[in-house]
Structures are given as C-alpha cells and as structure tokens.
Write a structure and sequence with these properties.
The protein has 219 residues and is of the alpha/beta class. It has a single domain (2-218), classed as Rossmann fold (3-Layer(aba) Sandwich). It has 9 helices and 8 strands. The protein has helices spanning 8-21, 25-29, 36-41, 60-68, 81-93, 112-116, 136-145, 166-177, 187-198, and strands at residues 2-3, 50-54, 73-78, 100-104, 121-127, 147-158, 201-207, 212-218. An 8-stranded mixed sheet has the order 1-4-3-2-5-6-8-7, with helices on both faces. Strand 7 (201-207) and strand 8 (212-218) form a beta hairpin. The longest helix has 14 residues, at 8-21. The chain is globular and about 45 Å long. It starts with a strand and ends with a strand.
C-alpha cells in the first residue's frame, strides 16, 4: 500500500472520525447510503478493465465490485489511514488482495502513476465521499483526468431531498453535520462544467425523490 503527501488537517480529522466508527461503518451506513449498489451494477467494466474508487473507505464497494466483475483490476485510495486498515482487511478476507491495490492519498490531488503504476482507468467512481471532501470540485476534475479514453466517472452522493418533506431534510442534514457531511447543492452544475471541460457527456438522475443523486460522465 503506497502513500502520498497529504493535507494534515483533513487527514487527521478523518482519522479521528473513523478511528472507532470504521468498525461499525458498513453495518450502520447500509440503511442510508442509498444508490451505492446501483452505481456498482452500472459500472459495466470491460473485460480485464481497471477500476479506481476515490475515497474507498472500508473497502466495501471494492469488494462488491470485485464480485460483479471477476476479472477487473481494482484500485482504491483514501485519506484516512484508519479506513484503509479496514479496507485492507476486507480485501484480504474476501480473497481479492491479488487484484486490489490500496493507497493513502488525497482525492483532490493525486498521481495515479506514482501511487499505482497506472496512468488511467476504465472506470473511476466516488460513492458518498464528495460530501465529505472540502475541495470536492477538485476531486471531480481529478477523477475525469484519470479516465482512459472511453472511460467513465460514476458518482453517487446525497442529493437535496427536493421532493421529500422539509422536516425530513432538516433532520437528515443536522444528523449528517455531526459527521462532517455536507450534501453538495451545486453537484449537478459542477459535474456539467467539469464534464464539458473534459469532453465528456453527462447523465444525471435523482433517486428516491432526491434523497440521492447519481451521475455518470463518459469520455
């Protein structure tokens, strides 16, 4: 597992948040991180293709991706050493350590060649991480830049709950703030802008009455 120079404050914050939470993260988050499995099922990884997850957390998504695409080469990066400990244990436990590589790095500014020995990927995805990354717009740009020709960037994250009751939105966002999570109101606009710069086409869906947003940018 390789490392890259990290912004100390955010790395320390994430390690503090997840030092204990990582042990129950997957058990609790499955009830409200909606759309993750739909994203993975829609990756449509080509035979022998490469997949990079930005903000791979506990490794849950990489393990599921490995099961969906048995010949895919898998890569994951995260800023939290605590989460990467859990991710490494998960990929070993699931028997995919031989085709999954992890690195500690900042998703807003990373060098995939230095981290993984791979310059570009067929699929890049970000699952419920943009809402926790301070300069999240840079992660969108970095994800697009890491795509191979014909590749795609897949994003799922909290929406604005636009068709759900106002009281629900208020309660959810108050709860999320306790974990330093901020749903990105401008996510659609930023994805449109960055996709246009990268020459990619964008599809964008609002799931579960706006609870979650799912987007795919294709080069």
């Amino acid at each position: 597992m390789s490392t890259q120079e990290l912004p100390a404050n955010h790395a320390e914050l994430m390690d503090g948040v997840y030092r204990w939470q990582r042990h129950i993260y997957d058990l609790t988050r499955k009830y409200y991180l909606l759309g993750r499995d739909r994203l993975i099922a829609g990756l449509d990884v080509p035979a022998g293709g490469s997949v990079l997850e930005l903000g791979c957390g506990t490794g849950r998504n990489l393990v599921l991706t490995a099961r969906h695409y048995p010949d895919a080469r898998l890569y994951g990066l995260d800023i939290s050493a605590e989460m990467l400990d859990s991710a490494q244990a998960a990929i070993v436990r699931d028997g995919i350590a031989g085709r999954a590589v992890l690195a500690r790095a900042d998703a807003t500014d990373f060098d995939p060649q230095a981290l993984f020995g791979v310059a570009h990927f067929d699929r890049v995805f970000v699952s419920y991480s943009l809402s926790m990354i301070p300069s999240w717009e840079k992660t969108v740009a970095a994800g697009l830049a890491a795509l191979a020709p014909g590749g795609s960037l897949h994003v799922v994250d909290f929406g604005q709950q636009e068709k759900l009751p106002g009281w629900f939105r208020s309660l959810l966002q108050a709860w999320l703030r306790k974990f330093h999570v901020s749903p990105r109101e401008s996510l659609h606009e930023v994805l449109e802008s960055e996709s246009a710069k990268a020459g990619a086409s964008l599809s964008f869906e609002r799931l579960y009455r706006g609870y979650a947003w799912l987007a795919i940018a294709r080069r």
